[in-house]
Amino acid sequence: AQKVTQAQTEISVVEKEDVTLDCVYETRDTTYYLFWYKQPPSGELVFLIRRNSFDEQNEISGRYSWNFQKSTSSFNFTITASQVVDSAVYFCALSERSGGTSYGKLTFGQGTILTVHP
Amino acid sequence: ETGVTQTPRHLVMGMTNKKSLKCEQHLGHNAMYWYKQSAKKPLELMFVYNFKEQTENNSVPSRFSPECPNSSHLFLHLHTLQPEDSALYLCASSFAWGEQFFGPGTRLTVL
Q1: Do B71 and B30 form a contact (C-beta atoms < 8 A)?
Q2: What is the mean pLDDT of residues B2-7?
Q3: Which of B41, B88, B97 to mutate to test the interface with A (most CBs of A within 10 A)?
Q4: Residue pair A55/A66 in contact by the 8 Å Cβ criterion
Q5: Is residue B62 exposed (0-12), middle (13-18) or buried (19+ Cβ within 10 Å)?
Q6: CB atoms closer than 10 angstroms to residue B53
Q7: What is the DSSP letter of B16?
Q8: Of A35-39, A101-105, B69-73, B106-110, where does mean pLDDT reach its minimum?
Q9: Does A63 touch chain B (CB under 8 A)?
Q10: Do B94 and A104 touch (CB under 8 A)?
Q11: Is residue A9 less than 8 Å (CB to CB) from chain B?
C-alpha cells in the first residue's frame, strides 16, 4: 500500500525566511508520480508540480524548488524568501497508476500548515 | 468558464434531507474524482469515474451516491447523512494519471 508522510504538522516563519517542507513516501510501484499541492484558506487545492519517478532532476520555479531523492524516498519542497501569501496548507501526494488503466489514484500526506508572519 | 467548478460552495442540510453536489470540468479530461476532506484527516478518495464509468468506490457508505452522465459532469447525491459527514467535498479531474485539477469544493454541514 502507498503511504505519504509529512512529518511537519505546522511551520511558522517570518517573511523572507527560507522554509523546507518535508515529504517521504512509500510505494511498491516502480512507476509513479509525485505532486505538491497548495491549499489556501479558500479551500481549493492548487497544483504546484508533478515529478515522474524516472526523473530525479531537481526543479526550480521562481521562489519554489523541489528536491526529489529516490534513494531516500523523499520529495522535499523549499520556498525561498517566503511571503505572507505563501501561508497555506501544503500537501504532498503520490499517484499510482491503478491497474494499468488511464487514471491515477492519489494518496495524500496529512499536510503541513505554513504560516508566514510579516 | 475554465477549470473545475463546483456548486454549491456551501450547503447546510438536515439528516433527513436529500441534496446533490455538482461538479463540471472544462478541461477535456477523461477522469473525475470525488474527495472528502475532514478536519484533521488527510484527503480521502471516495469515487473515481473514468470515461463516465465508475471505476473506484473506496468503501463509501451508500448514503453517498455518485452519478456521471458524461465525462464533463459529476454529481454526488446525498441522503440521510450523519453529522460526521460534515466536511469539504472536493471534485477533481485529470487526463490519464497526470496531475489532478481540483474545484473550489463544497463545504457541507449536516445538522
Answers
A1: yes
A2: 91
A3: B97
A4: no
A5: exposed
A6: 9
A7: T
A8: A101-105
A9: no
A10: yes
A11: no
CA distance A83 to A13: 9
Task: Quote the CA–CA distance of B63 and B82 in Å, as a whole number.
Answer: 9
pLDDT at A103 over 80: no
Cβ-proximal residues to A29 (8 Å cutoff; 6+ apart), any chain = A2, A53, A96, A97
A72: helix, strand or coil: helix
CB-based contacts of B40, cutoff 8 Å, min separation 6 = none
Is there a contact between A35 and A45 (Cβ–Cβ < 8 Å)? no
Cβ atoms of residues B4 and B103 within 8 Å: yes
Mean pLDDT score of chain B, rounded to an integer? Answer: 92
How far B53 CA sits from the closest chain A CA (Å)? 12
What are the tens digits of pLDDT across the range B15-66? Answer: 888 999 999 999 999 999 999 999 877 899 999 998 888 888 888 999 999 9
DSSP lists the bridge partners of residue A68 as A75
Grid coordinates standing for B73?
459532469
Separation of alpha carbons A2 and A23, rounded Å:
13
Cell of A48: 504546484
Contact B55 A95 (CB under 8 A): no
